[in-house]
Amino acid sequence: MLETPGPGGALPTRPRASASGRLRALLFVAPAVLIAGFVVIGGIGVALVQSVGLMPLVGEAEFSLDAYTANADDLLTGLGLSLAIATASTVLSCVIGLTAAVIITQGRISGRVVAALSALTIPVPHLIGAAAIGLLVADSGLIPRALGLTPAQWPDLVGGPWWVAVVLEYTWKESAFVALVVAGVLATRVAQYDETAALLGASRARRLRHVVIPLARPAVIVSAVIIFVYTFGSYEVAWLLGRPYPEPLPVLAFRLFTSISLTSRPEAAAVAVVTTAVALIVVAIGMAALKRTPLWR
Amino acid sequence: MSATLTLDALTKTFDGAAHPAVDAVSFTVAAGECLAILGPSGSGKSTVLRSIAGLDVPSSGRILVDGTEVAGLAPERRGMAMVFQRPLLFPHLSVLDNVAFAGTVAGQPRREARADAAQFLDLVQLGGFGSRAVTALSGGQEQRVALARALAARPRVLLLDEPFSALDPALRTDMHELLAQIRAQLNPTVVMVTHDRDEAAVVADTVALLTAGRLLQHDSVPRLYSRPASLAVSRLMGGRNEVEGTVSEGVHYSALGAIAAPEGEQWPDGVGVLVVRQEALRLGEPLPGEAGVRGVVAASALRGPRAHVVVDVNGAALECETAAISAPEVGTEVTVSIPLAGCAVLAA
Fold first, then answer.
1. Residues of A with Cβ-Cβ distance to B91 under 8 angstroms
2. pLDDT tens, residue by residue, B133-190
3. ipTM
4. Whose CA is closest to B311, among B283, B339, B342, B276?
5. Is A214 in CB contact (< 8 Å) with chain B?
6. How far is residue B169 from each of residues A2, B36, B161, B164, B165, measured CA to CA in Å?
7. Is the CB of residue A15 less than 8 Å away from at least one CB of chain B?
8. Which of A4, A199, A211 sits opposite B90 (nearest CB)?
9. B53 and B177 share a domain?
10. Has residue A193 been placed in a domain?
11. What pairing do the DSSP bridges indicate for beta strands B34-38 and B189-194?
12. Are residues B202 and B90 in the same domain?
């Protein structure tokens, strides 16, 4: 029998791409990189420049932080509100989504039902979802009517102080996203590990805690980052189902952007820059958490 | 750590299958014994193992551990540990925490579970590897850790599902030695599935030969080779010599002449096929207890250090394994010595 290289043996090195090959590869990706770069870096750059007064609609360009301080109170309140909505939606989506993923990977009929429900939820746009949630849980909505409750007997879920309908809509949509992403990861690897753990004496609950959840952790972290950043920067659901004041950051930014006042445009840009900065910080924290998981290493 | 395992008419038919994957298989493995379930791919041997473990639910039959039926018990309550062909080490745990897994999930304090696990790592000669990530191990090391992890669960029966088949021959030999050491130290009851006759012969005390879901023979390794229960067993065990003839008063008459039954063996009168292992035959003059037959070398094929020499004896072909260096050329007239103790007569 011929000797095969062991796990520690030398692997054959891949042939290096030639200079012309690399150039061609670069040319192929260039259009996508240019467009993405233009939108992301250009967009953020313009907002940043506008927010510090270097691109005024009228008058001299002059560096100033006025746009950041003009609505300081609203900006801080909006930041707190947006963080709260995004955190609540992310945590609930991850808990519900992970539970659904575990049910899906059990492979029973209930699993197939949950998978089908999750798959059906994904293509529904958030705007439609928000309208549907509004029609269901508003004080004049279908659910209180079906229960025979008057608006006074029904809690302020839509436009109320706790932003329940907004969080509910995000959780409904995003938990389906978590369920499918995590189920996809678990389906490929969890069954055999689960059997191994069972044979080592681990009960169902112990297997969940010691095997399934740790194996799902990287997928959950990635999903959580995506959901947080999305719900933090999303406008339409909060606008439709939230109350007029205080405003979350995206609603505040959009109101200022469409305002007729000449100074509002830089102020809207300042809100957008703060939103982007927080999103980038969350992505960095998420990536750091991902690097700390043993599976990622 | 060792219990008696009994299978009583274990049958498993998968949904929609026309034939059972396992058909009324019965055997007993004594406490501390090592049984190899040997069979070709698709013979149902892994299904038997998974049924014992509780991972597959049998259609009928009983599985008894120390006389108590385990049907209805979840895998985690059966007290069995299994090592698969793939090591399946938990990728999120260190080597030591993998071995400590059974202790941890049993509620043992972490420090205690780890101290216990370290002893099992020493047992598989991987002391000092505890803090490593499982990705930093070679294939052989991974399988050693998997074995330590299974042993640390102190199973009543240790189940091995082709655990060494993905390893190269040298590593496999090391693992066989390791298993022998573990058996000497801990005396576990072991059931091992393999498709490798040599592995079964090296590792196991007894072998259960399975094909198409049926148990053909459950016997000691030497008897499986020298006293096969049927031609199918002889062929599955790699036997190459089958000479048709007739038995009369304990003597088999064929192209080879008269071959008498060895002492203690009863050959029924009538048509019967004489089988004798190719490794048992010897080129050269017969010694006491051997019958010599003359023939002509019809073919010779080299197999590394060994040669398979086919000798034509009055129209019957006898295959004889010999050292390649002393293999005679085709056309040479030779004497083949047949040890009478190695002969068996089976129904055609």
1. 215, 294-295
2. 999 999 999 999 999 999 999 999 999 999 999 889 998 999 999 999 999 999 999 9
3. 0.86
4. B283
5. yes
6. 11, 19, 17, 9, 9
7. no
8. A211
9. yes
10. yes
11. parallel
12. yes
